[in-house]
Write a structure and sequence with these properties.
Blueprint lengths: L1 E2 L9 H6 L5 E5 L1 H10 L53 E2 L3 E10 L7 E14 L3 E12 L5 E12 L12 E3 L18 E6 L4 H5 L12 H6 L9 H16 L7 E8 L8 E9 L2 E8 L4 E10 L15 E3 L24
Parallel strand pairs: 1-3
Antiparallel strand pairs: 2-5, 4-7, 4-10, 5-6, 5-8, 6-7, 9-11, 9-14, 10-13, 11-12, 12-13
């Protein structure tokens, strides 16, 4: 349970793990899909971009627009209070100290451009880190009519000030998934295979929030200043959407169905209007990436995108104003705390 004042710092793991979340059904349509794509920068520099127009328009007679895989990162919001906070009995914490540290996404089939779906939610992890508790919430989304599973999101949340509920010599830890499911982030020392620069708009957070994340930290200047920022900051999941777009455009010829899973660790805040420079390294079916704010030369996000497969004939990364290619690469057509500092995992400073 989130509180707005100093919490009792009490965590009852048995109560938290026993909680049964209600299933949540909802619909989305092509307007939602297109609005999200625009919110994470699609066609932002070129309204007729060959590799991105299909995310917002039925080009060349295509019956449906295509869906960016990170669109599904919106789905867990349907189980929250609209501010990204899910109520879990047995957890008492100060909501102002909540940090979104990591996001892991698995895609099981191409995401339809409109659907009726159902969210099933569970606590997938709970860890006592002394000064904080790490909570992992897993949301599995299925087609309502057929029951076919579309995707899974696992959100890693840091509850600062709510740790220390177990014996420090044997701190409590619980997880429902295998330790090797999410790969370790490893940023190579070599020159990246490609670099993609993308300048966000001053209105980027205001546009992205229309997709369902209404945390005022990203829109209200007074609240942003109280939180220690000079002005409202960009949503962490919006930054993740920019990074995934960079991978898809640079290695996948704009084909979203090439993506199998996505992992991102939020490191630092982004101000709307800043330039995101995503460095990418192709390693087999995996693209390691690191996104920096170009103006401050600070890393804001790191992680990887796992692709469905790499064909024998590799496509060359897109070259031009925004992409600088160092190697030829391509993909097929057809998820410890690191110093996060704001409500969506982007560190202040």
């Amino acid at each position: 349970m989130a509180t707005s004042s100093k919490p009792t710092a009490a965590v009852d793991p048995e109560v938290a793990l026993a909680h049964k979340f209600p299933e949540v059904s909802f619909d989305y349509d092509e307007r939602d899909v297109a609005l999200y794509a625009l919110g994470v920068g699609a066609c932002g520099d070129d309204a007729v971009d060959d590799k991105e127009l299909h995310f917002v328009y039925h080009r060349d007679g295509q019956p449906h627009i295509k869906v960016l895989p990170t669109f599904v990162s919106l789905f867990p919001n349907k189980n929250s209070n609209g501010l990204g906070i899910v109520d879990v009995p047995g957890l008492n914490f100060d909501a102002s100290l909540l940090l979104h540290g990591q996001q892991y996404i698995e895609i099981y089939r191409p995401i339809p451009s409109y659907a009726s779906v159902v969210n099933k939610v569970k606590v997938a992890g709970l860890h006592d880190k002394g000064k904080a508790t790490i909570l992992e919430i897993e949301t599995t989304t299925s087609l309502k009519e057929s029951g076919e599973i579309l995707c899974m999101n696992r959100s890693t949340i840091y509850l600062r000030g709510a740790g220390g509920f177990s014996d420090s010599s044997r701190p409590y830890t619980y997880a429902t998934y295998p330790a090797n499911q999410v790969h370790r982030i490893s940023i190579p020392n070599s020159a990246p295979s490609a670099v993609y620069d993308d300048q966000t708009k001053q209105s980027q957070a205001l546009l992205y929030r229309l997709s369902g994340d209404y945390n005022p930290l990203h829109s209200d200047p007074d609240i942003a200043q109280v939180a220690g920022f000079t002005r409202p900051i960009l949503h962490g999941l919006c930054t993740l959407g920019f990074a995934a777009r960079a991978v898809i455009k640079s290695f996948c010829n704009g084909e979203p169905a090439a993506v199998k899973s996505i992992f991102g660790r939020f490191l630092l805040h982004v101000y709307p209007g800043e330039t995101l420079s995503t460095e990418m390294w192709l390693d087999g079916q995996k693209v390691h990436y690191q996104t920096k704010v170009k103006e401050r030369n600070r890393a804001v996000l790191s992680g990887y995108v796992l692709l469905q497969h790499i064909p024998s004939s590799l496509a060359e990364p897109e070259c031009g104003r925004s992409v600088h290619a160092h190697d030829e690469a391509g993909c097929g057509a057809n998820g410890e705390e690191t110093g996060v500092r704001d409500a969506h995992g982007q560190r202040g400073g």
